């Protein structure tokens, strides 16, 4: 076992762990995304000790020379001292070489970075202005073929960066870029498999690049490209994609419009309806790419899991705004209809409890998941999850715990860790012999809360639409009876309780005095 010193604390790295795992297990606030050495989001710098070649694979030479490495794939052979990345190394100057208006609201930028930059279409860059304003844009071009780094920017009427790009940025101007980042790219190992690419708005930019990349690699499977919008102006690559499809028998381009007056030859309706309700209701074995409007991306993930797509085969870049997502779990939960068929198949409860028993036994043994249950008894975790799922599936009102966002608001959980947890959950469900269509439906339901749970920084609790600061206690009036997180006794409707703002724990008046030393928190 090796140790890693970071930000004034020492973390032990167990033999099976990466440095990132050890940091997260120890509660360090570090960014990460793919956890497999492709997106570079987790980049750190070695001050002492060698990170090893695997942890530097694919990094620009300047970053390697300055000892930057990716902790998610770093398994050190010696103790290390590590630090934040050197920000001056992360950005490089770049010049706008060409710009073309592709539609009234979308402009294409062709960018020349000051140093050699190797990217793969589907990755993204962070573009930073002189005053520090920074936004992400996905790459549409292929480094080996196109020379320029190309991005397509949609104008957001009250948006700071996109308005500046559209109205002020001129050819010859300099700015800074960071990247390439992200792992939503074509991989040769996908050759022969059917690909489905779904984008809305400028989400088609990375998908266009990925499609050209797949064709350039003589991809042998079928390739379906879906572009959704409201009006014809939104389908700004209609001609290019149509031509590409004419040239390649295995490429199918399907434009979709959800507005009025849809011209002939264009599907009238939502792009996700066309993909999953009409063309691919069973998409097991397909690789799925999703880019653009986050609502579409998360909707499509839900349908995809229901259609049997493996979680590892979904590559997604939701174009999240720079402002934090404000969830409305209550509205989401209210919109979910009970599932009497599934509830019946769970023997109206006992089989659900048995599945959860198996799942939590595996979870409490699991080195990556068990730290989230520090100080929570397994029976309590099972009871909370049982109450939540029983209410959703049966439609009977009996859950009085936190909603999914608030139950996880302080936990840093990547898409990859979410998938890891879901795989374990699905294995427990399958062990109990539910029919395939019910397994898929249940797993799709779980998918509905990914956006509430996955995040790279801690959030505060959200109550009545307001996000509360993360530390300290507040006194709350209890609107629905609940259980004290200290003594497990009932707290009645109308009572007051002390709530820990980070963990969301509630303590009855008797327990309040000891609550600060007794923090718990369990993912739902
Ligand atoms: C990985 C990734 C890839 C992306 N790729 C692309 C791409 O290829 N092309 C593209 O066009 N875009 C892309 N985006 C989106 C892009 O990064 C920007 O979010 C977008 O250009 C808007 O930035 P802006 O500065 O113009 O707008 P902003 O100033 O960020 O405003 C965006 C919206 O937020 C609202 N807003 C303002 N203040 C607040 C506040 N305090 N709280 C909540 N909301 C507020 C504004 O009214 C506006 O509607 C991508 C995003 C990500 C994460
Ligand atoms: S490279 Fe480490 S999280 Fe993606």
TrEMBL record:
Q: Which SUPFAM superfamilies match?
A: 2Fe-2S ferredoxin-like, Ferredoxin reductase-like, C-terminal NADP-linked domain, Globin-like, Riboflavin synthase domain-like
Q: Which domain of life is it from?
A: Bacteria
**Any idea which GO molecular function terms this record carries?**
heme binding; iron-sulfur cluster binding; metal ion binding; oxidoreductase activity; oxygen binding
Q: Which UniProt keywords apply?
A: Heme, Iron, Metal-binding, Transport
| Pfam families to which the protein is assigned, alphabetical | Bac_globin (PF01152), FAD_binding_6 (PF00970), Fer2 (PF00111), NAD_binding_1 (PF00175)
**Record's keyword annotation contains DNA repair:** no
User: Which InterPro entries does this one have?
Assistant: 2Fe-2S_ferredoxin-like_sf, 2Fe-2S_ferredoxin-type, Beta-grasp_dom_sf, Cbr1-like_FAD-bd_dom, FAD-bd_FR_type, Flavoprot_Pyr_Nucl_cyt_Rdtase, FNR_nucleotide-bd, Globin-like_sf
PANTHER family annotated for this entry?
A: NADH OXIDOREDUCTASE HCR (PTHR47354), PROTEIN RFBI (PTHR47354:SF5)
Mind telling me what this protein is named? 2Fe-2S iron-sulfur cluster binding domain-containing protein
């Amino acid at each position: 076992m090796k140790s890693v010193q970071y930000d004034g604390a020492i973390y032990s790295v167990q033999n099976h762990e990466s440095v990132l795992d050890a940091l997260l297990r120890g509660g360090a606030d570090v960014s990460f995304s793919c956890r497999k050495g492709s997106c570079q989001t987790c980049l750190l710098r070695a001050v002492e000790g060698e990170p090893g070649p695997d942890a530097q694979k694919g990094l620009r030479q300047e970053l390697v020379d300055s000892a930057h490495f990716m902790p998610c794939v770093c398994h050190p052979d010696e103790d290390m001292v590590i630090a934040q990345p050197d920000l001056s190394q992360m950005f490089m100057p770049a010049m706008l070489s060409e710009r073309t208006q592709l539609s009234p609201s979308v402009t294409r930028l062709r960018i020349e970075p000051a140093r050699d930059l190797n990217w793969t279409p589907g990755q993204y860059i962070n573009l930073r202005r002189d005053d520090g304003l920074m936004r992400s844009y996905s790459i549409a071009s292929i480094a080996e073929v196109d020379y320029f780094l190309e991005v397509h920017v949609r104008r957001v009427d009250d948006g700071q960066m996109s308005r500046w790009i559209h109205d002020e940025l001129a050819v010859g101007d300099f700015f800074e870029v960071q990247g390439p980042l992200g792992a939503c790219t074509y991989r040769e190992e996908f050759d022969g498999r059917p690909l489905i690419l779904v984008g809305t708005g400028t989400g088609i930019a990375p998908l266009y690049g990925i499609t050209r990349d797949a064709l350039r690699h003589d991809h042998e499977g079928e390739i379906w490209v879906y572009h959704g919008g409201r009006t014809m102006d939104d389908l700004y690559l209609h001609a290019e994609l149509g031509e590409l499809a004419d040239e390649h028998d295995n490429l199918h381009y399907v434009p979709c419009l959800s507005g009025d007056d849809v011209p002939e030859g264009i599907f009238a309706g939502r792009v996700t309806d066309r993909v999953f309700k009409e063309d691919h209701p069973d998409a097991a074995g397909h690789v799925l790419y999703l880019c653009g409007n986050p609502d579409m991306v998360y909707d499509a993930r839900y349908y995809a899991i229901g259609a049997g797509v493996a979680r590892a085969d979904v590559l997604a870049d939701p174009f999240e705004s720079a402002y934090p997502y404000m969830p409305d779990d209550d509205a989401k939960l209210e919109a979910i209809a009970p599932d009497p068929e599934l509830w019946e198949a769970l023997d109206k409860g006992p089989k659900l409890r048995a599945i959860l028993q198996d799942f939590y036994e595996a979870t409490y043994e699991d080195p990556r998941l068990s730290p989230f249950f520090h100080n929570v008894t397994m029976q309590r975790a099972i009871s909370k999850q049982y109450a939540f799922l029983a209410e959703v599936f049966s439609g009977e009102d009996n859950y009085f715990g936190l909603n999914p966002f608030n139950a996880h608001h302080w936990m840093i959980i990547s898409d990859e860790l979410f998938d890891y947890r879901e795989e374990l959950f699905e294995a427990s469900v399958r062990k109990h012999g539910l029919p395939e269509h019910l397994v898929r439906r249940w797993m799709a339901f779980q998918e509905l809360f990914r956006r509430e749970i996955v995040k790279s920084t801690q959030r505060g609790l959200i109550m009545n639409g307001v996000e509360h600061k993360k530390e300290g206690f507040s006194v709350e009036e209890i609107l629905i009876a609940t259980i004290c997180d200290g003594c497990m006794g009932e707290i009645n409707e109308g009572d007051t309780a002390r709530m820990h703002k980070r963990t969301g724990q509630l303590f009855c008046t008797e327990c309040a005095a000891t609550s600060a030393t007794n923090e718990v928190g369990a993912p739902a």
